[in-house]
Give the backbone structure.
Amino acid sequence: MKIVVLCGGTSSERTVSLSTSEKVGKALQGKGHDVILIDVFFGSEKELSFDEKQDITAAADAYRAMTDKLDEELAKDRPFFGKNVVNVCSKADIVFLGLHGANGEDGRVQAAFDLLGIKYTGSGYLSSAIAMSKTHTKYVLNHFIPMPKGYVLTKEDPHARKLPAPCVMKPSNGGSSLGVFIINDDAVYESALEKVFQYDDTILLEEFVKGRELTQGVLNGVALPPVEICPKEGFYDYLKKYNGETVEICPAPIDEKVLEEMSNYSVLAGRLLGLSVYYRVDYLLDDEGKLFCLEVNSLPGMTSTSLVPQEAAAVGIEYPELCEKIIEYSLKKYE
C-alpha cells in the first residue's frame, strides 16, 4: 500500500507525535509498504514520491530539528497544512495519523480530509473533537460511567466553583498530562490556576481520587488487557510517561470482576462518543474497588513506551501487525 504517516504539527505534543510517527513509519516500511513520513505543518519543499524509499529516521530527525523554528513560523500566520502535504496525502491509499494534541487529535485534520476525500486512520472528526475536550467527554459519559466529581472553569469566570484540596486541575483540551496539577494545599490554588490557564482557556477542576492508575485500549470494538501504571513517586505526569521512571504492568493484576466492569465501560465509552478503530480509556481504581473514568484518548501514543502497543502484545499482536490492523479497520469506515 501507499501510506503517508502524518506527523509533527503545532501542538505541545509535537515531540511525542514525531516519536510515534517514526516508529509507525519504520514498522509499515518493514512490512513492505511504500511509506512517506511528512510533517503536517512544515511539509516538504520537494514533491515526495512513493517510488523512492524514504529514510524514515532521517526524515523524523529533520522534522525534530525544525521544532526550534515553530514559533517563528507560527508568527507568520501561514496556512496550517505545509507545502506538498495535501498533495502527497491525496495520492496515498490511506494516511496514518501520527498526530497528538491540538490540530491533529481534535478533529480538525479529520474534517479537512473528509472534505478532500482523503482516507485516514482512527475516528472521525466529530467523535475526535468531543473526546479531545475533557469537559465535553464528561458531559457525555458522566451519566453512564463513574467519573470524579468536577466543575468547568473558564478565563471569563475562573472562580465560579472551587473544590477544597486535594483536588486536580487540568486543561480541558490537552494530552500527555501536560498542565495537570494536583493541588494538595489551598495556598497554591491561585498560582496553579494561573499556570493551567496558560495551556487552555477552559479548565476541568475535579475531586482528587486516591487509587491505582489503570488504562485500557480498545481495538476494533474489543477491549484489550489493561495496564497498571506505577510511577516510582508522584503521579503519572509528562516526564514519567516518556523517561522510563514508571513501572507498567500488563496485564494489570486486578480482580476479574473489576476487569469485566472496566472492559464494559471502555467499550461503552467508545460507543457513546462515537469512536472507532482504536482508542484508550484512563481510570483510577480506589481502595474500595470502585472505578473512576478520567478521560478518553482518540489517538493514543504509538511510541516505544506507549501503552496500547503493550496491551496488543499481551494478546499476541506485535507492533507491525498492530499498525496494519489499525489501517485495515480504518479502511472499513469507507466501505
User: Anything to note?
Assistant: The first strand starts at residue 2 and ends at 7. Residues 256-273 form the longest helix (18 residues). The domain at 150-207 is CATH 3.30.1490.20 (Dna Ligase; domain 1).
